[in-house]
Amino acid sequence: MAKISSSRKAAFQILMAVERGQSHSDDLLRAKAVNALSAPDRNLATALVLGVLRWQIQLDQQCQALLTRPNAKLDPEIRIALRLGAFQLLHMDRIPARAAIDESVELAQQAGHRFASGMVNAVLRKMARYKQTLDSLSAPAETSDLEGKVDTEESVDTEGGGGFNPRIKSAEETGALAPERSFPACEAHPNWMVERWINFYGFDAAYAICRHGQSQPALTLRLAGPAAEAELDAAGIGLEPGELLTAARTVVSGDVTVTETFREGRARLQDEGSQLVAELAGYSGESGINSGQKQRTILDSCAAPGGKTLILAERNPQARIVACESSAPRLEQLRKRLAYLGERVECRLADATALTEDSIYDLALADVPCSGTGTLGRNPEIRHRLRPEDLARQAERQRAILTAALRSVSPGGHVVYSTCSLEPEENEQVIATVLAANPNARLVSLEARIGQLLGEGVLTSTGAERLRGSLTTEGFLRLLPGTFHTDGFFIALIEQMVTAIGY
């Protein structure tokens, strides 16, 4: 009987929970059971879970093709055992084939499928032989064994000291992207998603989105200032400048989470696109009734987990901020995170669609719940859960939140609407529908605000130039994954006009 490593056992349990819809991978990977693992085991468990979820569609096709009965319906435990074994064989560097196969077989047996475990063994051994044949054709003879290296896009430490290596080929290797042609990153996404992205954004952008969805997102920090960077440097943390923001840094080496700087909040993890949303919202020097002063009252209508609220508070130190959250557990976490700001921030249990305050805020940020298709690299299971019909349900709630946010701001005030979705139903179409129903609101191009943030030293010159190139003709800002090294975001700025009827 093969012994199952703690990392593979943890990965199996997490993948089973995700398969049953019991929780999300990011929450499960931060659970006590995973944190209790040694660092190498924790890294391997994380790589296995995220890698299997990213490549699940293709892994299922590859395993199904090797079954004696390709149309056979498999129990969930068997599917997970096969995916884990296949992912290690095809995508992980320096994981011995025997470990990938034997422990996958043992996982099936311990899950109560002794008979089916023989099928798991047979399928994975076929796959290992196939992989060995491919390696022998593409690698020098001395490295063409079962443990040979594969193409690498990124590295996550594993028990063997190797990396997590998705097989993603370049456009030149795969030929031009087209719906009738397959390429690995495309095959790992639902067809309906890929077809939409080609239709909306074009061939090259769709390829870049898919490729980005198969890679580990950059580990990006928000720094409190130069002193924080110096502290991290002294602690041996390797940093590189952000892509867009002067306060952002990308971690290239070291474990920032064990540093005092991180524990005390002088550096915090936050995607650079997420930081940008709050920077665009929090700028307080625009023309209008608030010209020359910080926003007096700010509404963050969907505040948890609080990263954007913190930036709003940093950029508006004299403002009173109301941070709303509809989930009581998430509100409690938000309160703890923002507690050091004291009475400046009121954390309120409230449904953002049902806010009753009218014309009292200078600024409202509506960073609304969405499908999350801009975060598939970070949240890979979204691709397996989301259905096209879900977009209409999301859009209905988003319209209600934006309508409430517009009602809450005073004449001359602004609403920033943002999503981490790539889908027009949740972005442009929401804006168009709400503006049609609110004739006293108008869309404002983000071009001027980009220039203002550049002038204040918030944006890098290169970042400002690239953002200007990503503005739509309407003045929306769209960050597409792959085009930027961030999650995907859509951002719009709306003004409640001073001439509004009733004032």
How would you describe the overall organization of this protein?
With 503 residues, the chain is of the alpha/beta class. The chain has 3 domains: 6-142, Orthogonal Bundle (N-utilizing Substance Protein B Homolog, Chain A), CATH 1.10.940; 220-269, Alpha-Beta Plaits (2-Layer Sandwich); 272-496, Vaccinia Virus protein VP39 (Rossmann fold), CATH 3.40.50. It has 21 helices and 12 strands. The protein has helices spanning 6-19, 25-29, 32-35, 39-65, 76-91, 97-110, 114-138, 171-174, 184-187, 191-201, 203-213, 226-234, 260-263, 272-282, 307-315, 328-338, 382-385, 390-408, 428-437, 447-455, 461-469, and strands spanning 220-223, 238-241, 248-253, 267-269, 297-300, 320-325, 345-349, 361-367, 409-419, 441-444, 477-479, 489-496. The strands form 2 sheets. Strands 5, 6, 7, 8, 9, 10, 11 and 12 form an 8-stranded mixed beta sheet that branches. A 4-stranded antiparallel beta sheet has the order 2-3-1-4. Helix 1 packs across helix 4 (39-65) and helix 4 packs across helix 5. The longest helix is centred in the N-terminal third of the chain and has 27 residues, at 39-65. The chain starts with 5 loop residues before the first helix and ends in a 7-residue tail after the last strand. The model is unreliable at 141-182 and 286-292 (pLDDT under 50).
List strands and helices in order, with pairings.
Elements: H1 6-19, H2 25-29, H3 32-35, H4 39-65, H5 76-91, H6 97-110, H7 114-138, H8 171-174, H9 184-187, H10 191-201, H11 203-213, E1 220-223, H12 226-234, E2 238-241, E3 248-253, H13 260-263, E4 267-269, H14 272-282, E5 297-300, H15 307-315, E6 320-325, H16 328-338, E7 345-349, E8 361-367, H17 382-385, H18 390-408, E9 409-419, H19 428-437, E10 441-444, H20 447-455, H21 461-469, E11 477-479, E12 489-496
Parallel strand pairs: 5-6, 5-8, 6-7, 8-9
Antiparallel strand pairs: 1-3, 1-4, 2-3, 9-12, 10-12, 11-12
